[in-house]
Specification:
By secondary structure, the protein is of the alpha/beta class. The protein contains 11 helices and 11 strands. It has a single domain, classed as Survival protein SurE-like phosphatase/nucleotidase (Stationary-phase Survival Protein Sure Homolog, Chain: A, 3-Layer(aba) Sandwich). Helix 2 runs parallel beside helix 4 and helix 5 packs across helix 9.
């Protein structure tokens, strides 16, 4: 099916990542069953012996995770670079990730949308000015990357001439660039022109406020930024932290990002040690919501499910001539996909799904002949 074509990247990459995920996850994670491969990857495991061997070496007793020291990492997201919301919904995950990566020795630059762009998918701005504007990190994050070569600079992208402005009581914020805008501008112009002529070693998207699992990835700005970077030839990983309905209701229990950022740093180090940071690398990682005292279970290598727990859609009814629906939470379906990311997340596993960015599917029977006859 096209879904599996999209979610399962090169088999060798998927098999190698099984051991890498174990390596990254065992440091500070609760023990559970071994990660399982999707059927397509498991069937061809023997063809990936070299990659698997490299990944297993990353899980050696002496050093289960590699280092991110010296890696040039571009962070993008869809939650914006504002970082002001008490819930953490407008970019706190980006700053938590930046903090963890810089503390581990990476050189980081962040380029994200000016305002929150959740659910924008792969939208891009086709015409008009686009401004890249440096911002100061929010309180508590200002000196995180002081020792890094680039200083951990953070930039917002707005779809307007300079300067980008924030909202006030009387004026709206500048229209924002999209996550894909940020990735395209950063990778094709801004970063090579001003910082790293060869571009970053790795693009990391997130940490997103809320899970990006199942079919929601098709609408996700976080994952669209990842796929955009991947199609431009950059290896990348998207990170998201699970959201609860309690948080959405304004009653707390929101993503706190610290543990997810620590895992992200370990995973990146393990992938680097296994020599898997290549243009083929595109991973979608979801970190489970944890109540106080809970610990994440071991990472699993999954496929995209069909039924996310946080499902949005229209409710109410309108007459035949049209009317207004209310958009919000609606019931989700029951997951039936084998080895689904949603199932792993529901059981507090860290879920990892390889992407390849290719939506090409298998033609239905008879389609080729039908098209030929049209000519």
């Amino acid at each position: 099916m096209a879904r599996h074509r999209f979610t399962l990247a090169a088999t060798a990459l998927g098999v190698g990542l099984t051991a890498v995920a174990v390596a990254a996850g065992t440091a500070g994670q609760a023990t559970a069953s071994e990660p399982s491969l999707a059927p397509a990857a498991a069937a061809s495991a023997s063809s990936a012996a070299a990659v698997e061997s490299a990944a297993v070496s990353a899980a050696s007793a002496s050093s289960r995770s590699g280092s991110v020291k010296g890696l040039r990492i571009l962070i993008v997201n869809d939650d914006s670079i504002q970082g002001q919301s008490a819930s953490g919904s407008d970019g706190k995950g980006l700053y938590a990730l930046r903090h963890a990566l810089c503390a581990a020795g990476a050189d980081v630059i962040a380029v994200g949308p000016w305002t929150v762009q959740s659910g924008m998918g792969g939208r891009i701005t086709l015409t008009g000015p686009m401004t890249v504007q440096q911002v100061q990190p929010p309180a508590g994050y200002g000196t995180d990357c002081a020792g890094a070569p680039t200083g951990g600079r953070v930039f917002g992208v707005c779809a307007a001439a300079a300067p980008c402005v924030t909202a006030t009581a009387s004026t709206p914020a500048s229209p924002s660039g999209s996550p894909s805008d940020a990735a395209i501008i950063a990778l094709t112009k801004f970063i090579p022109d001003n910082y790293w002529p060869d571009g970053p070693d790795l693009v990391v998207s997130g940490i997103n406020f809320g899970q990006n699992d199942a079919v929601t990835v098709y609408h996700s700005g976080t994952d669209s930024a990842l796929v955009t970077a991947h199609r431009l030839g950059s290896p990348g990983i998207a990170f998201s932290e699970e959201l609860t309905t309690t948080c959405l209701a304004g009653q707390g229990s929101c993503p706190e990002y610290t543990k997810a950022a620590a895992f992200a740093t370990r995973l990146i180090g393990a992938v680097r040690k296994a020599h898997l940071i290549t243009p083929k690398l595109a991973l979608n990682v979801n970190y489970p919501h944890l109540e106080p005292g809970q610990r994440a279970r071991r990472p699993e290598l999954n496929v995209l499910g069909q039924c996310t727990a946080i499902n949005f859609g229209p409710s109410g009814s309108v007459p035949a001539e049209g009317g207004t629906y209310s958009m919000g939470l609606v019931p989700s379906c029951k997951e039936t996909t084998r080895n689904a990311d949603t199932t792993a997340l529901a059981h507090k596993h860290i879920s990892i799904v390889p992407f390849d960015g290719d939506w090409t599917g298998k033609a239905p029977a008879g389609l080729r002949g039908l098209i030929r006859n049209l000519g």
